[in-house]
């Protein structure tokens, strides 16, 4: 039991650490895939900003502007390729929808680039404004297609390890913050390029985005309070507050104020982008810092769990060895003698007296116990012999008290003792029960003519024939004199009548050979009744006696099956108090007789 308890505790510890090790092992690649997806989202947002800016320019006037789009597109393609390779390294059924969304994103991005290149090839004054707006809106549509990829990978990372829930949310919020910052620049790009005031929609969009930026930063700062003791996080948050949400936001707000009135901006679009976009890198650094911290934490937990598993398994193995050694020593020096003595006590308790008792090997407590067992065995043998003799005497007395001395059948007392049980079952569960009362016809004449010894021989022969006709569950008893009772469980009145008729035929067909060589023909009369709401076994016997009386009154050597009359009480009397049937009504009897 101690070993089992120890192994159970060790198993619980190993199981818990194994789960930690497994979660950390699976969470590292899941977080890396999410990081790659966030980088793809960042690159697509950057490509959207550059594409939006370049569509406001005329490539024929400044070819250098066209060269700015190629590196951005190459970065997007590289990030998509890295994510696709990571997803293909360990494919699974849960990654199939992610891969499908990623391929759809690549297809839509390629179509978007084709449309934008065709539009940018035209001179600026020949570009359809609606087509330009549609081309600019295609990259956000591509981002919407890619959003399920980020959501699915975030969900997978959280499902693998719930402890990274806040970290995953913070990384997504940082990406959203960078997206909002990029949209703020994109909102002001067209007015600055055209040197025109902001439209009402642009003013509303910029105000909304600036508010979202403050809210996102507040949520990120609140979620990262647990990391306030780490200086790198504090520095990254300060860089965002002083950079894109500090000087950068002040610059954009200044342009927003100018755009609300005159539209005479004091800087070019290149200067605006060069002043603000580099500051957005602080947001990406915070996101990468969050992801790297999650990966570092997962690696530390993985390493700790691995060492703990090895140590636990090693200590458990060592402890098992010590347990087995102690068990061997204790069993040899202590338990084996006690176990042998226990087996001897059990053998004596189970009366297996043939078990040999070994001689004591040591003159100690175990030796004294072995000598005491020798004495106990001798006493047990004497007690068992006395017990067997007593049981035999009790069995003989019980058999003598329950058996009729002449016929060997149950006597009247034993019949009532066992019959009450059968009657109680029939009465409680409404089971069928039949009772046959049999009387040997003209038995007094046999005694008078041939003597009482011949009468006894006739009764013994009738008892033997009755045994042949009964089942094992039936109760057969000598009721008194030449009367016999047969109680038939699970038998109705008609079936009881058939049993009585069979017995009547057997008795009538038998030749009763007496000791003096005389052969007699004997007949018997039968009264058959069935349990019908009787309140006691005696009332059932009373009705059987009435049926037997009808059989004898009808000429003997016949079977009378007597059902209970409606309104008849348990004593066999009708409502008028004049017996089984009124004088003006014939009794309802089932009579079977033979010709004499």
From TrEMBL:
Residues 332-385 form the HAMP domain. Its EC number is 2.7.7.65. InterPro entries: Diguanylate_Cyclase, GGDEF_dom, HAMP_dom, Nucleotide_cyclase, Rev_trsase/Diguanyl_cyclase. It comes from the Bacteria. The keyword Cytoplasm does not apply. Pfam families: GGDEF. It catalyses: 2 GTP = 3',3'-c-di-GMP + 2 diphosphate. PROSITE patterns: GGDEF, HAMP. Residues 575-584 have a biased composition (Basic and acidic residues). SMART domains: GGDEF (SM00267). Keywords: Membrane, Transmembrane, Transmembrane helix. SUPFAM superfamilies: HAMP domain-like (SSF158472), Nucleotide cyclase (SSF55073). Residues 431-564 form the GGDEF domain. Residues 559-584 are annotated as: Disordered. The chain crosses the membrane at residues 307-327. NCBIfam families: GGDEF (TIGR00254). PANTHER family: DIGUANYLATE CYCLASE DGCM-RELATED, REGULATORY COMPONENTS OF SENSORY TRANSDUCTION SYSTEM. This is diguanylate cyclase. It comes from Collimonas pratensis.
